[in-house]
Structure formats: structure tokens, C-alpha cells
Write a structure and sequence with these properties.
By secondary structure, the chain is of the alpha/beta class. Helices cover 35% and strands 14% of the residues. The protein has one domain: Ureohydrolase domain (Arginase, Chain A), CATH 3.40.800. The chain binds arginine (ARG) and manganese (II) ion (MN) (2 copies).
């Protein structure tokens, strides 16, 4: 059990929403993340913390994975149709659960699903603020992306950045995230064009440099001071496991050296829990096919589960 009081979820009901989807990036295997995380006992672990849980599979019956291709379309991006359809299904499930008072825990899958989770949570409560824990900024737009991989773009879509470059089928996405409502922690691999956007929109970005300089505890306080100064708004925690150093979390698609230690990574989730303001959670980019050994896979899946447990109240007395 945990003693954290969740202001927006006093009844402690959580819905685990699986997003077995890899279309936001070229590598196969990240669609198996949810299955591995659930097989590791994630739901039971959350129940043990005092949550009532249900699991939903909104992508069941779709065949997005079979439609994946590595071609850029006329907008300079890949797999637009399946990423868009996947996000529509997730948007609906996340919003419905949030409106029912359930805390959505979306398990990826690649980070392109952040388009749905972030915009749904802002639709549910426009005061929501976002903490994006990641080695990457994921704020490319179709106009500026070099890779064309949509897991590098979710935040531009929900902020409406370079919106003239979006394909018409993505016009349903609410552009409801304001620059003052998001902060990054863990950045260390940001594209040049993304750096310009972070500057232009004045988005608080705490890189590994800041974490070494100030310590992770201070960095979280600074990030919350920017997006939630009176500690009153719900927090959407979007956690890309590649924020943590690849020595602890090797089985992920875009590894970048020099990341968070395992304890720093979990501390982020614990500190958000401690605020009592957690509104929703994503855990993304676990790719069980990219471990070189079974231990790599176990470590990575274990870390993903631990992030969820910490965010939902474990280890605080
Ligand atoms: N969710 C992630 N792991 N994103 C990695 C993005 C890498 C690079 N910035 C790109 O746009 O392709
Ligand atoms: Mn990343
Ligand atoms: Mn990411």
C-alpha cells in the first residue's frame, strides 16, 4: 500500500491502456512492450499499491503493424495513416477513462502515442501540465523532421507548431498544449531545428547537464515551478524509458549515452507521486526485441514496471 493522496484520483482507480504500436519509428519490437510489461506482473504490482485496476486494449483487432512502411510521404513523414488512426483510438480511450475518474496509464509502444495521451488529458482538464521525461525533445514537425519518424513529433502536433505542414487527416488533433504547460527532464539528444523551437517558444528544458549541475531533486522542483508553480494542476507524466541510461535500460530503440541513473529515473516518478498531482502516465519505448541478452530485456521491462509503481506511490512511506 502507499500513503500518497492523489488529489485528482482519491478513489485510486487506474486504467492500464495498452498501445502495442511501433509505427512512429522504423524498428520492430516496441509493439511488444505492453505484453512484456503485463507479463512481468505490472497490473498486480499496481493493485498491491491500493489501486483498483482495469486493462483495456484499444488497438485490438487493428492490423497497423502489417501496414508499416519506411517511405516518407509527400509531407516528409512516415506511416502517417496508421499513426493517425492509432492516436484516434487512444485519444478516445484516454479521454473516456479520464472523464470517468480513472487514471490513464498508457503503456507503449513508441512515443508517437503521446499525441493522443497529451491532447486527451488537456481536453479532459485544460489546466493539465506535462512533464516529458526523455533523452529526446520529440518536438519535430513534418516541416523540420530529418528522420520522418513520428515518434519524434508528438509535441509539435499538440502544440500546433508548423501546423501548415500537417497532413489534413491530422486536423482532428486538438492543438491544446500551451508552451508554458510543458517541461522536459533528461534531454541529451535534441535536433538543431528542435533547439530553435525550444528557444522560440521558451519551453523549460532540463538536460543531463542541469541534472548534474543542480541534482535531480532540484531540477524537478525547478520544472514544477515553471509549469505548476502553486502545485495545483494535474500532471501528465510522459515517460520515455530512454531517458534512463542505456546501461540500465538497454532494450529501447534510440539509446543515448549519458542518461539518468536508475535511481534518478525512479526519483522523478516518486517526486511526481509525492506532489499528489499525478493525473495520467505514459510509459513508452520499451522494445524487448532490442536486448542483446535476456538480462537486457528483463532490466528494461523491470525499469518500465518500476517507473509505473513509483509514479503510483511505491517507496514513499
Ligand atoms: N521518442 C523517441 N525515442 N524519439 C526519438 C527521436 C529522435 C529524433 N529527434 C527524430 O526525430 O527522429
Ligand atoms: Mn526518447
Ligand atoms: Mn520520446
Amino acid at each position: 500500500m502507499s500513503d500518497v493522496q492523489y488529489k485528482f484520483h482519491p478513489n485510486k482507480r487506474a486504467t492500464i491502456i495498452t498501445a502495442p504500436f511501433s509505427g512512429g519509428q522504423p524498428k520492430g519490437g516496441v509493439e511488444l512492450g505492453p505484453e512484456y510489461i503485463l507479463k512481468a506482473g505490472f497490473e498486480k504490482q499496481i493493485k498491491n499499491l491500493g489501486w483498483t485496476t482495469t486493462v483495456e486494449h484499444p488497438l485490438e483487432g487493428t492490423n497497423f503493424e502489417l501496414k508499416k512502411s519506411n517511405e516518407k510521404d509527400e509531407y516528409g513523414i512516415k506511416n502517417t495513416v496508421i499513426v493517425n488512426e492509432c492516436n484516434k483510438l487512444l485519444f478516445d480511450r484516454v479521454l473516456t477513462n479520464a472523464n470517468l475518474g480513472n487514471l490513464p496509464v498508457t503503456i507503449g509502444g513508441d512515443h508517437s502515442i503521446g499525441t493522443a495521451t497529451v491532447s486527451a488529458m488537456l481536453e479532459h482538464n485544460p489546466d493539465t501540465c506535462v512533464l516529458w521525461i526523455d533523452a529526446h525533445a520529440d518536438i519535430n514537425s513534418p516541416k523540420i523532421t530529418e528522420s520522418g519518424n513520428l515518434h519524434g513529433c508528438p509535441l509539435s502536433f499538440v502544440m500546433g507548431i508548423d501546423s501548415e505542414s500537417y497532413p489534413p487527416i491530422m486536423q482532428w488533433i486538438p492543438q491544446n498544449l500551451k508552451p508554458g504547460k510543458i517541461a522536459y527532464i533528461g534531454l541529451r539528444d535534441v535536433d538543431d531545428a528542435e533547439k530553435k523551437i525550444l528557444k522560440q517558444y521558451n519551453i523549460p528544458a532540463f538536460s543531463m547537464f542541469h541534472i548534474d549541475k543542480y541534482g535531480i531533486g532540484k531540477v524537478i522542483e525547478m520544472a514544477l515551478d515553471k509549469v505548476n508553480p502553486n502545485r495545483e494542476y494535474p500532471i501528465h507524466l510522459s515517460y520515455d524509458v530512454d531517458a534512463i541510461d542505456p546501461s540500465f535500460v538497454p532494450a529501447t530503440g534510440t539509446r543515448v549515452e549519458g542518461g539518468l541513473s536508475m535511481r534518478e529515473g525512479l526519483f522523478v516518478a516518486e517526486a511526481v507521486a509525492e506532489t499528489g498531482l499525478l493525473g495520467s502516465l505514459d510509459i513508452v519505448e520499451t522494445n524487448p526485441m532490442l536486448g542483446e541478452t535476456d538480462a537486457h530485456v528483463l532490466d528494461t521491462v523491470g525499469a518500465a514496471c518500476a517507473i509505473g509503481r513509483c509514479a503510483l506511490g511505491q517507496t514513499l512511506l
